[in-house]
Amino acid sequence: MQKQQEYPPRHYLYQLAQNPHEVPLCQLVIMNRQALVDIRNTPFRKSIEAERVIAADMQQLGFLHSVTNRKYTDLFKRGLNFEIDFFHPELKIAVEVEKGEINNIWKNICKFAESPVVRHGVLLVPIVRQGQQNKSDFYENTIKRLCNIEKVFSFIESLLIIGY
Question: What Pfam families does the annotation carry (predicted)?
Fold first, then answer.
């Protein structure tokens, strides 16, 4: 008999402190599961579509959407034009939502490390990446590719990967 896996899967790649919104973020993924799975499983859909699905719930949790220095002046050094998908100003949590591009994962890690105010980074990634021809275990691959870069993580207190 196969063990039932908890949904959503989650894993800390780095943790000095627990993310104070880990449970509410996972509940948000559960509440929006079907819409997120539909986006995840359909080729050519974009991460912005997944952002839109969760935006109202994220706002209720205290997150700002599409945050740059114009919305939150201390987020990055002057001259950096990065954007964070969701940012919680009081708890200093940055959430990036991805659809399945590993290069974007690396950029997100750099944004977390580059911000002087981000304390907790969260990557919301598809459990599987559905392409036209094939399917890959994106959540597991993300963990494997990022598990040995602790120096980059040392700029934050935690990095949590949540699958959808």
Answer: Halo_RE
Distance CA 110, CA 114 (A): 6
Inter-residue contact 157 to 16 (CB < 8 Å): yes
Domains of the chain: 10-163 (3.40.91)
pTM: 0.92
Length of the chain: 164
Residue type, 42: T
55, 31 Cβ separation under 8 angstroms = no
Residues 95-131 have pLDDT tens digits of 999 998 888 999 999 999 999 999 999 999 999 987 6
Neighbours of 38 (CB within 10 A): 13
Taking the C-alpha atoms of residue 140 and residue 92, their distance in angstroms, rounded to an integer, is: 26
Contact 6, 22 (CB under 8 A): no
Please report which helix (H) or strand (E) contains residue 138, including its range: helix 138-146
Pairing of strands 93-97, 120-125: parallel
From start to end of 39-119, where are the E strands? 64-67, 84-88, 93-97
Q: What is the CA radius of gyration of the chain?
A: 15
